[in-house]
Design a protein that fits this description.
Length: 221
């Protein structure tokens, strides 16, 4: 499912009809923003430079998986169309985590999951004091921080939802993270699997699952 905001399906505040510019695909708007802030092609070589006239290259971190290689091809295609050079920092997942925590990555993508019926975790990714934990972007906007702190002590209701919507507006405007999608999983289980039930949030449910060996043998499996 295309993501429109930090609100996660099945959590408080999620509205399938809610729309923001976060999911908008608009190359013309992207070019206009780059032009407005001085990222233009100054020497006519087809590539944009920094406002100071220095070469500009986007460095994108990725693992050496087929999925990331496919994603890198898309990155290259779409950034080339905007006149932006790209290069890729390829490393193993643990090493990228370490580099991200140290603030050494320019662009990186990964997945998060919440463990409760609330999107507080996702909003917390942009909270300034979380820089040394889940705020990989090192985003620190005082106005956003105040909203995040305010909503944490409010009961669910129209007032809290309004604060979260305002926090969403700031996250979309400053874009420390581009939230791409919500994943949908399909589960298949054999009749002899005991205790299988899709948890609404976590995927770490294997400790509660067992096999009815007698039933499996009776079914000839």
């Amino acid at each position: 499912m295309q993501a429109e905001s930090p609100f996660i399906p099945a959590t408080y505040g999620y509205d399938p009809a809610y729309r923001t510019p976060m999911a908008e695909y608009n190359p013309a708007y992207a070019r206009a923003l780059l032009d407005t802030y001085g990222y233009v092609d100054r020497n006519g070589d087809g590539w944009r430079e920094t406002p100071e006239g220095q070469p500009l290259t986007l460095e994108i971190a990725a693992t050496n998986t087929q999925r990331d290689r496919s994603a890198n091809e898309l990155w290259t295609k779409y950034m080339n169309a905007l006149g932006l050079r790209t290069k890729f920092r390829v490393a193993q997942w643990p090493e990228l985590v370490k580099q991200s925590m140290a603030g050494q990555l320019m662009i990186w993508g990964y997945a998060w999951q919440v463990g409760q019926p609330d999107s507080d975790t996702i909003f917390g990714m942009a909270y300034g004091p979380n820089t040394e934990s889940i705020n990989d972007a090192r985003f620190n906007l005082p106005a956003y921080n105040r909203l995040f702190e305010q909503q944490r002590v409010m009961p669910d209701g129209p007032e809290r939802l309004a604060v979260l919507r305002e926090a969403t507006r700031l996250m979309v405007a400053y874009m420390p993270y581009l939230l791409h999608m919500h994943r949908i999983y399909v589960d298949l289980a054999q009749p002899w699997v005991i205790g299988f039930r899709r948890h609404p949030f976590t995927s770490r449910r294997w400790s509660w699952i067992d096999i009815d060996t007698e039933l499996r043998a009776a079914r000839g499996a």
